[in-house]
Design brief:
Helices cover 5% and strands 49% of the residues. The chain is mainly beta. The protein has four domains: 158 residues, Jelly Rolls (Sandwich); 75 residues, Immunoglobulin-like; 88 residues, Immunoglobulins (Immunoglobulin-like), CATH 2.60.40.10; 235 residues, no CATH class.
Length: 610
């Protein structure tokens, strides 16, 4: 007879409890909260509940800025505003407020970022005469690249002040700075109760939690205004992209019966000012040296990558067939070689924003390095060091032979004379080892296949200088032709892996699901021997782009020479090629590469022997 333990008994009781409860649908969300202090500065009495200190003729007062705060809160009638003046030191201080656990401060401000250098506010929390800086408006604008003007929401976690009496103070200091408007000042406590609601901005997510009782086996959610609009997950995450007030409904089932819970006006999504951002047109490329590189005499459709749901657009172009456009995605043609500026202004009812590039930002025609790293990512270049296993995109002991960077097809014929590679480490004991660079096209699976051009650099000649931007140049004997509409790869490797080799390329890492242009080839293994076969993989588990920059020009012939294509040799599903001067027993990285050349010239088998 099996022994009954207390653990077994408690587990049985829990199961019985779940089965014994009636089926009842219920839910909450991590973002749900109840405000317990609100200040809207809508009446003289509300305004008088704070105290104000001034050193100028212009001080905090009731008033409105256009657009008024009604676009965020339709019930608003006024805001706390401050008009700029000379030699200002203006303070607005709240009464003492007892902060509850799990509380957050929220408020909105309207201002232009450009003038904050001359005058801005700081928000302090004061407890027993000791003040803590919560937000520096000027520093916030610098950190976020804010320009405005727009109504911007600020939030502060008040966990450090739980259980304390706190006074909040806006302290504005400046000399002919910026007009300010502040509104919607609230302190909220996370809450799962029936009176709780969710307040978010457009584009933010809500994390829903199932609180149903009974033996629930199915969940069917409906989210007005949400993406996704429905879900069968127990605890879904939903994004709301449009301002509005939305209901949420959950129906749960136990296989026999169902129960439904609805919460009207549960999710309140506030409009958000747009943030302008120019997207990369198809046929253009990012570059380490200019914002983008584009062909001439070819129509290009610019993309609006702005956030915050803009409703109007104004593009200003230089060097194109049109100078301005109010379309969201205008099509333009650059007429002649040169460098040009570009500006995008976007707006909605909440505010406006500008994304502007100086007159050398866009290079049209000619020759330039290209890569898949956006200008805002240039400061994020790093390496992936894998400890004893070496480096990703470099020396490694994981059987990764080659690394590839994928590039979109040019919209017109192009050619590549060299590939510049940026390394973070270049220690090479195997100084005479050839590091090979190829330009390859894609097969039907989108993986590297046909070789268009080959070159190499000795491991001892790799360039690296920690104080300057210094690339290793892999130069082709003849320019590699890329016909219009042909996707291509820059493929590098293998890297030497003697115990004293330590080589790593720079790269830009991203979050899972984001852009990934990096690939790698993994050899098959048999015992301790790497075979000549293997498989290409896109590195979607760790999305990244390699710091490889082909030097491309839009002046190539559309014909690919037979000499360049002749390097292609197909071996067991993998593309190999003959390197000039490779011997039949060539020492490489502490192993030997045995090359068998068939007399008919159709293929070369490369076998790696440890």
């Amino acid at each position: 007879m099996r022994k009954i333990t207390f653990v077994t008994l408690f587990a049985a009781m829990a199961v019985f409890s779940a089965w014994g409860q009636p089926l009842s649908a219920s839910f909450a969300a991590d973002e749900a909260s109840v405000p317990y202090y609100q200040m809207g500065w809508d009446t003289a009495d509300e305004f008088a509940s704070w105290t104000y200190e001034s050193t100028s003729s212009s001080t905090w007062k009731l008033g409105n800025r256009e657009p008024s705060f009604q676009i965020i809160d339709p019930t608003s009638t006024a805001s706390m505003i401050l008009n700029y003046a000379s030699n200002q030191n203006e303070t607005a201080t709240s009464p003492a407020i007892e902060i509850r656990p799990n509380s957050t401060l929220e408020f909105y401000c309207y201002a232009s970022g450009i003038y904050l250098v001359y005058g801005a506010w700081k928000l302090f929390a004061t407890v027993d005469g000791s003040s803590t800086l919560l937000i520096d408006q000027f520093q916030w604008a610098q950190d976020t690249g804010y320009e405005g003007p727009s109504w911007e929401r600020f939030t502060v976690d008040l966990a450090a002040f739980a259980g304390k009496q706190v006074q909040f103070s806006f302290v504005y200091q400046g000399d002919y700075g910026e007009d300010e408007a502040i509104d919607g000042f609230r302190i909220l406590q996370a809450n799962d109760g029936d009176d709780a609601v969710i307040n978010i901005n457009e584009g933010e997510c809500v994390h829903f939690r199932d609180l149903s009782t009974g033996n629930v086996t199915s969940w069917n959610w409906t989210f007005e205004g949400g993406e996704p609009a429905t879900s069968t997950e127990q605890n879904p995450v939903v994004t709301y992209n449009q301002a509005g007030t939305y209901a949420v409904t959950l129906t749960v089932g136990d296989g026999t019966a169902t129960d439904t819970k609805s919460r009207d006006a549960y999710v309140i999504v506030h409009a958000e000012a747009p943030v302008a951002h120019v997207g990369l047109p198809d046929g253009a490329y990012y570059s380490p040296w200019v914002m983008m590189f584009v062909p001439i005499q070819v129509p290009l459709t610019f993309k609006d990558a702005s956030t915050g749901n803009p409703t109007s657009w104004l593009w200003t172009f230089e060097g194109t067939d049109i100078t301005t456009s109010d379309l969201q995605t205008p099509t333009v043609t650059y007429l002649q070689e040169g460098t040009y500026g570009l500006k995008l202004e976007v707006a909605n009812e909440v505010g406006s924003s500008v994304d502007e590039y100086v007159n050398t930002a866009i290079q049209a025609g000619g020759e330039q390095e290209i890569w898949n790293i956006a200008p805002e990512e240039n400061g994020d270049l790093t390496m992936i060091e894998m400890g004893w296993y070496g480096n990703y995109a470099g020396t490694n002991w994981l059987g990764i032979g080659e690394f590839a960077e994928h590039f979109d097809a040019p919209v017109t014929d192009a050619q590549i004379k060299q590939v510049n590679v940026y390394f973070g480490k270049t220690t090479a004991a195997s100084t005479d080892a050839d590091i090979v660079m190829k330009i390859m096209t894609a097969d039907y699976d989108g993986m590297p296949a046909q070789v268009l051009g080959v070159t190499s650099v000795k491991a001892g000649d790799l360039a690296y200088d920690p104080t300057t931007v210094n690339a290793t140049e892999f130069v082709f004997d003849d320019p590699v032709i890329i016909p219009a509409g042909t996707e291509f790869f820059a493929v590098i490797g293998p890297f030497p892996n003697d115990m004293n080799d330590d080589i790593a390329m720079l790269l830009c890492r991203r979050n899972v699901g984001e852009k990934c242009t990096g690939y790698h080839f993994v050899y098959d293994e048999e015992g301790y021997e790497y075979l000549e076969t293997g498989t290409w993989y896109q590195n979607t588990d760790d999305p990244l782009s390699l710091a490889m920059a082909p030097v491309l020009s839009f002046t190539a012939s559309s014909q690919t020479s037979s000499d360049q294509l002749a390097v292609d040799k197909q071996v067991l599903g993998r593309t190999w090629y003959n390197l000039a001067g490779m011997s039949s027993d060539k020492p490489f990285d502490g192993v030997n590469i045995v090359v068998t050349r068939y007399t008919d010239g159709t293929r070369s088998v490369i076998k790696v022997i440890r």
